[in-house]
Each structure stands twice: as C-alpha cells, then as structure tokens.
Amino acid sequence: MVGLPARGKSLISGKAMRYLAWVGIPARVFNVGTYRRQDTPHPNAAFFDPANKEGEKARRAAAEAAVSDMLRWFKEKNGTVAILDATNSTKARRRWIYETCKNAGIDTLFVESVCDNEEIIMHNILEVKTTSPDYVGLDPEVAAQDFRNRIRNYEKVYETIDEDEKQYTYVKLINVSSTVIINQIKDYLSSRLVYYLQNLHIKPRSIWLSRHGESEFNLTGKIGGDSNLSPRGEAYARALPALLKQSGIPKNAKITIWTSTLKRTIQTARHLAAETGYEKLEWKALDELDSGVCDSLTYEQIAERYPEDFAARDEDKYNYRYRGGESYRDVVIRLEPIIMELERSENVIIVTHQAVLRCIYAYFLNLPQDQSPWMQVPLHTLMKLTPRAYGTEEQRYKANIPAVSTWRAKGTSAKHQEYPAGLK
Ligand SMILES: O=P(O)(O)OC[C@H]1O[C@@](CO)(OP(=O)(O)O)[C@@H](O)[C@@H]1O
C-alpha cells in the first residue's frame, strides 16, 4: 500500500484480504503500525516529523520487522499474497521494498490511494480517532488534532508514484476509484485484484439476503429441483415487503432486487417488486448449488443410494462435488462476478438459496471454508448486512410464518423438521 494516513489503506487491505481468502488464495496483511506500536504504543505527531531522527529510526525498524516477517510467511507458510499496509510514502522506501521482494523472488504490486476530497478525509480521520489503538483513552478532539498534525508531517516527505517509477507494477486509486491509473499489470491475479479494487466504494449502503419462501420440495425434504412455493412460502413472499420496511430502509434509498432464475426465488420476490417498483434482475449465477445425480432426492435417499458420497460430503462439505454437479468451491467461483457487481452496487436485496446464501454471507462475514457450508440459514428470515470500515454489521428479521427446517447436522440424515415460528 502507498498513501498518506487517512486514505483508507487499512480498509482496502482488509477487504482485499477477505476477497482473496474467499476465492481460496492464501493472503495476509502485515500492518507496519502494529509492529511500531510494540515499542511506541501512543506516539504523538512529533514522532512522525521527518526531522525527528529517533522517530525515523523506530519507524524504519518497524518496517524492517514487518517485511522480514512477511518474507518468512511467504517461505514457510506458502503464502501467495501479502499486503504490506503502511504509508510507504517515499520513492526510497518503495525502491527498498521492490528490491527486497525481487531478491526473494516475489513480485510487487503497489496500490496507491490518493485522496484530495476533504469529506472523505474527514470521514477517515473520524474513523481513526475513534478506533485507533494509538489514541485509546484520549479526548477525541485532541486525538483528531494530533492525527491532522501527523498527516502534515507525512505530507512534508510524501512523493506520489510518478513517471520515475514506471518500471513498477502499480495501481493508483484516486478519490476512491473515481479515477484509476494502472501501470504494467502483467498477470491474471494482479488484474483480478485491480478489477476488484476498481469496484470498491465507500457510500453507506446495506445488502439484504433472504432465502426463497418455503418450497414444495422443502416440504418433502427433496433437494434441488425447480418447484413452486408452498402456501406458507407464498405467505412469506407476501410478508417480505413489510419485513424489508421493518428492517429500516434509508430515506430515498433505491434498492435493486436480485433473484436466481429458479421459480421459488422469482415467486418470493414477486410481491416485493410489484409493491415497491424496485428494479428486478435474475441471475443464473444465483441458482442453487447443482446436486447432479442427487437432484430431487431427500438426504435419506442419498444416504441410502450413495452412502460413500454421503460420507465424503460430510467429511469435506466445502470441496465435495456432487456427481454431475457442483461443490461449494465451484459455487464460490461462479459467484465471483456477483461479488464484483455487489461491490459496485449500493442497496441490493438478494433472494436466493441455502448454499448460495452461505457463500455470499461467508464473503461479507469472513467465515472460514470449513464452517460456511454448515451455517444455519432458516427459511422466512431476512438478513440485513451493513458494511462498515472495520467489518460487516448483521441483523436478522424473522417473519412469523412457520416453515420446515432444511438444515442437516453433520453425520445425520435425519428427516427435516418443522421450524417453530418466532424462533431466532
Ligand atoms: O449444502 P446443503 O446443506 O445440502 O444445502 C443445499 C441444499 O439446500 C436446499 C434445500 O434443502 O436449497 P433451497 O434453498 O434451494 O431449497 C437444496 O435445494 C440444496 O441442495
């Protein structure tokens, strides 16, 4: 990362790491501030003055410690993408990083966040003064003033990436991707990352997730298929507009409704679209996990007809691929364009399926692959996710309409049960 303090570098680092981990690429953030805090936990702005030799020395030592841990991580833990989260604000510092990585056989991609929009900077300063461990226990106004002085100290020596550095691979994000300058991108992974970064925005918004209403297949415990809603599922579809309203919609917010191409999600969103006039899009990529030869069977029938497959799925549910069908890993790959589009979008309500919802949820909440396929996602429940600078907030709203439970615990083929109304 490259950029002055309060330019959203840590936010970008955290998001990029979450995205990479979700697509299965081992990634880690090395935050130089964390290393510096070991010796200097609560520095004031003077510590960052370029004329302060002691400060300069301590900061260089922190950067060296972070880079050496980073190189060790690449070597010993087989890491793929390390994100060095620091200001790296001078050409000399960047040359050192570039050379050090090159000598270790590691490619460098500099991501500079440039921002001259006062509103965004103020927003970031506010975020920092309330969350940074540097300022714990300090009066927020004093912290904000000190932080502004710290930025001024960095400005004295800050050199933006320019013509002299055109041999480097870099991307410059200007005012949160309003303008993006890309230089010397040479491989697929970097171009994917750049595309991801290009889609990010920081406008406040929410994403609502819901499964379709209870379907005829859900009632009989059959998986897959393309059945209609049950009468209770239809009742949920009718209740959805009020449930969405109850969850809190920002004034004048424009919401887009996304469904899969299967009947049960389209029927669930039908009344919502009609009552609100919100734009509606159908995505093939949101269709349920394809259960191949097991489509339209119950879990009990699968356990009976394909006992080895049933056991293998329990053993490693994320990677198990149904014969002629998909695994959770496959679903994540086909959902990548959905995530890109979601990052670009503002308010969206997605009406989809159990497995697909788990994958999207795992991206936002950073859920590990061995847990996400087992997550409980009850029917007739609306989830509201609100991305914040340091994580995603979640709220759940349950419609008071009973439905079966389609959740199956590991190691059982137990028949589905009624899901009691009002249960959280
Ligand atoms: O991965 P598991 O836990 O089997 O959950 C996925 C299953 O959920 C179901 C319901 O049992 O999805 P859906 O929400 O579309 O009804 C099946 O169609 C699908 O195979």
Concise synopsis of the structure shown:
The protein is of the alpha/beta class. Helices cover 43% and strands 16% of the residues. The active site is at 212 (tele-phosphohistidine intermediate), 288 (proton donor/acceptor).
3D structure, described in words:
The chain has 424 residues and is of the alpha/beta class. It folds into two domains: 9-199, Rossmann fold (3-Layer(aba) Sandwich), CATH 3.40.50.300; 207-398, Rossmann fold (3-Layer(aba) Sandwich), CATH 3.40.50. The chain contains 14 helices and 13 strands. Strands 8-7-9-6-10-11 form a six-stranded mixed sheet, with helices on both faces. Strand 4 and strand 5 (179-183) form a beta hairpin. Helix 9 crosses helix 10 and helix 11 packs across helix 12 (307-315). It is globular. The chain starts with 8 loop residues before the first helix and ends in a 5-residue tail after the last strand. 33% of the residues are buried. Bound molecules: 2,6-di-O-phosphono-beta-D-fructofuranose. The site of 2,6-di-O-phosphono-beta-D-fructofuranose has 13 residues, from helix 14. It is an enzyme of class 3 (hydrolase).
Map the helices and strands.
Layout: H1 9-22, E1 27-31, H2 32-39, H3 53-76, E2 81-85, H4 91-103, E3 109-114, H5 118-131, H6 140-155, E4 169-174, E5 179-183, H7 188-199, E6 207-211, H8 216-220, H9 231-246, E7 255-259, H10 263-276, E8 280-282, H11 299-305, H12 307-315, H13 328-344, E9 347-352, H14 354-365, E10 381-388, E11 391-398, E12 403-405, E13 417-419
Parallel strand pairs: 1-2, 3-4, 6-9, 7-8, 7-9
Antiparallel strand pairs: 4-5, 6-10, 10-11, 12-13
Helix pairs in contact: 2-3, 5-6, 9-10, 11-12, 13-14
